[in-house]
Amino acid sequence: MRVNRFLKAVADVVFPQHLKCHACNKEAIVNDYGICAECEQKLKYVPQLPAIKGVDELKCGMLYTEPARMALVSFKFNGAVYKKEFLAHFMCVPENWNADCMVPVPLSANRLKERGYNQSELLAKEVSQKSGIPVRCDLLARIRETEKQSLMTREERSNNLKKAFSASDDCNGLGIILIDDIKTTGATLEECAKELRKHGADRVYALTACCAAEGKTDNE
Ligand SMILES: [Zn+2]
Question: If pLDDT is split at 50, 70 and 90, which confidence band does 9 have?
Fold first, then answer.
């Protein structure tokens, strides 16, 4: 732990982004998860969420509005992986969830190669550090390349995702928390949950960093 703190102090000097707000990118005094006071005031939390088929309970950290939106876009598309700390901050596992592991929504091999990391896996690892619940990346794979979904309707997304995921029989009897960066229509989480249950998952929950209003985003 002491070594970690020392490394973070070194990183703060070497990588000045640690002195910048993780949401607005301005130089500022930031709180313990990297956000300036102005942005902290603007963050919106997620009240009630509609159910997703096959998902026992869904929880999202923040609404996908500024400043969370800007942070997620640069985390996902501009390689700003250090923003995971802020984005995962409000991803808290409810006490009543009976979970054995967390499963990040997988990327296709091509997308993973192009991006260099799976943003949902990075978030899952952050949540795992806080909750002690292990991350399993071997239980669910994306077996089919799917089109980018940002401009699709709910129905188009559903069709686009058919047979895109493949789960392992090791899911049998497990309680699984699906982790994703953003929930939009819920089509991705629904398809993943269906596949995990087909392979014996007993309980499936979903936890995401952000929640977009139903419809189109620039981000899926
Ligand atoms: Zn800020």
Answer: low
Ligand 1 midpoint to CA 127 (Å): 22
CA of residue 98 to ligand 1 center, whole Å: 35
Work out the angle between the directed axes of helices 154-161 and 187-198 (0-180°, nearest 10): 30
Q: Do the domain assignments include residue 220?
A: no
* pLDDT confidence of residue 218: 52
Does residue 27 sit in the same domain as residue 55? no
The sign of the torsion formed by the CA atoms of 124, 163, 190, 94 equals negative
Is 70 in contact with 62 (CB distance < 8 Å)?
A: no
Domain that holds residue 36: 1-41
- The domain that contains 54 carries what CATH number? 3.40.50.2020
pLDDT of residue 159: 82
Alpha helices per DSSP H over 97-183? 109-115, 119-131, 154-161
The answer, as to whether pTM is greater than 0.70, is yes
Share above pLDDT 90 across residues of the chain, in percent, rounded to a whole number: 71
CA of 44 to the centre of ligand 1 (A): 14
Instruction: Count the domains in the chain.
Output: 2
What is the structure's pLDDT at 216?
A: 46
